[in-house]
Amino acid sequence: MKKLNYRIIGSKTLAAALCLLVFACKKNDNENEKQAEGTLVKPNYNRNTMFRNPLNGWVMYGSGTGNVSHWDTEYYVPDLGKKVKAIDYASACYIRTRWANFNPSNGVYAWRDPNSALYKMIKGAQDRGLPIAFRIVVDGRDQGLNTPQFVFDAGAQYITEDPKFPDRRTPLPQDPIFRQHYAKFIEELAKDFNDPKKTSFIDAYGLGKWGEAHNVIYFDPAANTPKDKIEQAKEEVMDWISDLYVKNFSKVPLAINYHRVVGDPVSWGSANPNSDRLLTKLINKGYILRQDAFGMTDYYQSWEKAFAKTWNFKRPILMEGGWITSGTHRYWTDPSGKYREGHPEDVRKGEFDSSLEAAVNMMDFRVGDTESWFTKSFTLVQRFISEGGYRLYPERVYVPEKMNANSETTITHRWRNMGWGYFPNNIPQWNYKYKVAFALLDASGAVKKIIVDKDSEPSTWLKSSATNYELKTKVDIPAGTYTWAVAIVDTTNDNKPGIRLAVNGDITTEGWLKLINIQVQ
């Protein structure tokens, strides 16, 4: 029999509680809630706190040099009237660096050497509670010897674009010697980082200038290679490298840059007819989406916007700003006409607006541009925390306060995602591993029983609507007083809470949100 009382979890004033009581009574007349059993509990939504959840939130940047001093830099935030550390607002650390920094000589892997710069960079992120994300760059045209010298010594073919810089070697990705050594490297990397506790995502292509999946060289540019031969090489290379990453990184999300000339020997121009098909092919293998030119309106154009829209709420999108406002780029020349020289906050607003349109899950604190986010655009930092990515919470839960041991009950629960992005539980590497679960805790807070709702699916929760579930279950524990609690658990990790809920309230150290007590008779 349904009880008409309910509980509000979290700190509320009496007046606010009374307002919620009136609202709840009105809602009880709707949405079939008259059929719900038990006591209604309404957790208190948390709209502002930053939670370090996977594939969600702000990303700090690192490099292969080991210099992490900027991570602990404090920025004065006028909106707060105090200094803060950017890293306290981040959910992951992104390291984009050369293959040679990972693998300086054959069989030597820098991330396993405590004295190496790369090891110290990764350890620095881990010590600060951040998982790592990688992009490995092999193209040397702008940055020098990104591919290790031992690969060329072994006979790998390469091109040098400018004779004045003979050390700027770019390997041809279809060359068998290059592939042999690159595959060996990726296999070794996966042994240590195919672990979602350590690794947020892998930028799993890395070819072309800056590893951005454009301006990829397959043949000598002076050879005037037929277009169809280039297209064949492009797809074959994309198949090879994506298969390599998919095989080795089975538990970690893999990302591909989406743009209209993906994998092409050019960087600009109209969309290649094969771009959509090739990207879709990788997405069907399990790739998620990333773009490195948000806010750069001459590059991130209608094709990219339309492609993002096609995949919204099917695959998560990760954002990187295109313009570097700290002195490298003339961002005020952007054709949008919205960016003033000397006003990086204009670019921050452009990046934020494009991110909102694309419904991205992650945004970036790039080296050199981080300061302007905090000193000039902190409102947007907080807005993304409050509005962007995913923010999941149980809007309503009906649970019994008294029942007999070994008897059945029905738990009715309703969930909402308050973020503009989505929770990517459907990607192959996660394989729907996150589920809603209820726990019964004893007086010490120890978990005595966990009940997983296998029908719950957080990837379908969107901001526009709530999702309701009914879970019929048997409470087969000894008589006594317990506390109902709820969480989103990782079913591959002993059903431990895996996602921080966007709620205020009494939350255990492990991550269970306490609801109300139950007397089992």
TrEMBL record:
The keyword Cell membrane does not apply. The keyword Signal applies. Gene3D superfamilies: Glycosidases. PROSITE patterns: PROKAR_LIPOPROTEIN. Keywords: Signal. SUPFAM superfamilies: (Trans)glycosidases. Residues 1-24 form the signal peptide. This is DUF4832 domain-containing protein. It comes from Pedobacter ureilyticus.
